TrEMBL record:
Protein's name in the database: Homoserine dehydrogenase
Pathway linked to the protein: Amino-acid biosynthesis; L-methionine biosynthesis via de novo pathway; L-homoserine from L-aspartate: step 3/3; Amino-acid biosynthesis; L-threonine biosynthesis; L-threonine from L-aspartate: step 3/5
Family designation: Belongs to the homoserine dehydrogenase family.
Pfam families hit by this protein: ACT (PF01842), Homoserine_dh (PF00742), NAD_binding_3 (PF03447)
Species per Swiss-Prot/TrEMBL record: Streptomyces camelliae
UniProt-listed Enzyme Commission number(s): 1.1.1.3
Length: 430
């Protein structure tokens, strides 16, 4: 039966995502009411610039005082789409203190302070939902938190940043260098004027922390995530990848160790075989590949950013939180009971593609091979191309720890016959 008294929603932020949330709330109001069992009413919209014209949003709902809005006491759900750490963190905790549940799209805040926010939600008996924080429209948080709650997830391997996937895809398909591809991404609006958060992997690392925490029922913070950006990937790396039947993607990789006693989370560019489903994720799309004991391999794919796709995820959370509210219940909160240690990058085990510039003379290959052997890194293939007394040597290893590989590279750099280490790239997804 439909309740007539509406559930009141406060919207914090009315940018690209917030304005779409407001639009869908208005245009789909009847459907949302039917699905929830009560109408939902936009009770206030907190913005920074009140003079800006916002189509479809009555001027009397707009305020610059977000704190007063979340403190009103009659708000059922606060939707936070302003991003960043402060004032978002204080506004969310204030919302819980004043009886509201929260839907957030704030990956940076969740990755840094997720545990404290979940604790605040639990203390006040409210919900904290954040499907939109990772990979935009793609249902990922709820599948991991609910659909796979009875399974054991071993690995999450994802392309969770659309800007960098657009750039890498462009480099792959046209042979362009990084800067040229970035310029095109900027011109087309895929990259921001300051692309640092995307190209240096900060955005993906925040998402990796959130995914790892949920997948492994363990607290994983942003600081636990190893991070390398993709600004040093070159056209030559793509040529090498092609020779191996691979492409290069910026991957977020969350793994349970083989013995199950620890987990790792990392973001870096990596070669993946063209046969892997993630290799065919083109343009600015996102995709996440999940491996679990019982389900096996699952892939989630779709638009990972943008106003409308992100609003879709926010609205899904809003419906879920409103339903819980009407039932006098809350959904699943934080599950961190496993409390597995998060191992450092040195303990990650994977394969490596190393490209060296060396002198082309007798004994060099043996010298290089000895360094690998001394560090316990087993070589899978070696390819050499020589020219005028110099050569390029490409070594692909079997699985080895990152610490062993780092030791190997350090020792290689000290050899007189090694002119330089042109590139080191991990090989994943095999
Ligand atoms: N800037 C991100 C991306 C979207 O390019 O995927 C928001 O996380």
């Amino acid at each position: 039966m439909m309740r007539t008294r509406p559930l009141k929603v406060a919207l914090l932020g009315c940018g690209v995502v917030g304005s779409e949330v407001a639009r869908i709330m208005t245009t789909h109001a009847d459907d949302l009411a039917q699905r929830i069992g009560a109408p939902v009413e936009l009770a206030g919209v907190a913005v920074r610039r009140p003079s800006k014209v916002r189509e479809g949003i009555p001027a009397d709902l707009v305020t610059t005082d977000a704190t007063a809005l979340v403190k009103r006491g009659d708000i059922d759900v606060v939707v936070e789409v302003i991003g960043g750490i402060e004032p978002a963190r204080t506004l969310i905790t204030t919302a819980f203190e004043h009886g509201a549940s929260v839907v957030s799209a704030n990956k940076a805040l969740l990755a840094q302070d997720g545990a404290a926010l979940h604790a605040a939600a639990e203390e006040h008996g409210r919900d904290l939902y954040y499907e939109a924080a990772v990979a935009g429209a793609i249902p990922l948080i709820r599948p991991l938190r609910e659909s796979l709650a009875g399974d054991k997830v071993n690995r999450v391997l994802g392309i969770v940043n659309g800007t960098t996937n657009f750039i890498l895809d462009k480099m792959d398909s046209t042979g362009a260098g990084y800067q040229e591809a970035l310029d095109e991404a900027t011109a087309l609006g895929y990259a921001e004027a300051d692309p640092t958060a995307d190209v240096e992997g900060f955005d993906a690392a925040a998402k990796a922390a959130i995914l790892a925490g949920i997948a492994f029922h363990t607290r994983v913070r942003l600081d636990d995530v190893y991070r390398e950006g993709m600004t040093e990937v070159t056209a030559a790396d793509f040529r090498s990848a092609k020779e191996m039947g691979c492409t290069i993607k910026l991957l977020a990789i969350c793994e349970r160790a083989a013995d199950g006693g620890s987990v790792t989370a990392r973001v870096h560019p990596a070669m993946i075989p063209l046969s892997h489903p993630l290799a065919s994720v083109r343009g600015a799309y996102n995709a996440v590949f999940v491996e679990s004991d019982a389900a096996g391999q699952l892939m989630f794919y779709g638009p990972g950013a943008g106003g409308s796709p992100t609003a879709s995820a926010v609205l899904g959370d809003l419906v879920a939180v409103c339903r819980n509210r009407l039932n006098g219940a809350t959904g699943p909160g934080e599950s961190a009971y496993a409390a597995l240690p998060v191992s450092p990058m040195g303990e990650v085990v994977t394969r490596y593609h190393i490209s060296l510039d060396v002198a082309d003379k007798p004994g060099v290959l043996a010298q290089v091979a000895t360094v690998f052997a001394e560090h316990g890194v087993s070589i899978d293939t070696v390819r050499q191309q020589g020219k005028d007394g110099e050569a390029s040597l490409v070594v692909v290893t079997h699985r080895a720890s990152d610490a062993s590989l780092s030791g190997t590279v350090e020792a290689l750099r000290k050899l007189d016959t090694v002119r330089g280490v042109a590139s080191i790239m991990r090989v994943e997804g095999e």
